[in-house]
Specification:
Helix content: 40-55%
Largest sheet: none
Order of helices and strands: HHHHH
Shape: globular
Structural class: mainly alpha
Number of helices: 5
Radius of gyration: 14 Å
Number of strands: 0
Strand content: under 5%
């Protein structure tokens, strides 16, 4: 990962409640289902779009799958943070998601700017 906040291991953050019996969060059955299954991610996209009264454009881009997987991870691991509240995702999870939904370029983690 490019920056220090992005270069964290799932064992270095407060995820013990999810790591029971697993060496890495990416091995957890729920992680793989919630963050790696296209059908699950598509339903998550549809529900968010429905709340925002937006339509889901098809075909769905790898970028949108990736961003939805990041959102799913945060919701599953940390709960709802609220608008513009961001925390880094462990690099193992980011790499797993990027491998599934690749892109030529990645933005990387950024804290929300105060407006």
């Amino acid at each position: 990962m490019d920056t220090a906040p992005e270069s964290i291991c799932c064992r270095e953050v407060n995820l013990e409640h999810l790591l029971i019996g697993e060496k890495c969060i990416t091995m957890h059955r729920s992680f793989r289902m919630l963050c790696g299954e296209r059908d699950v991610l598509e339903v998550a996209m549809l529900s968010l779009r429905d709340v925002r009264a937006e339509t889901l454009e098809r075909p769905i881009s790898s970028r949108l799958f990736r961003l939805t997987a990041y959102r799913q991870f945060t919701l599953w691991a940390r709960g709802h943070l609220g608008r513009r509240n961001r925390i880094p995702i462990p690099s193992c999870a980011v790499n797993y998601i990027r491998d599934l939904f690749p892109s030529a370029e990645y933005q990387g983690f950024e804290y929300a700017l105060d407006l």
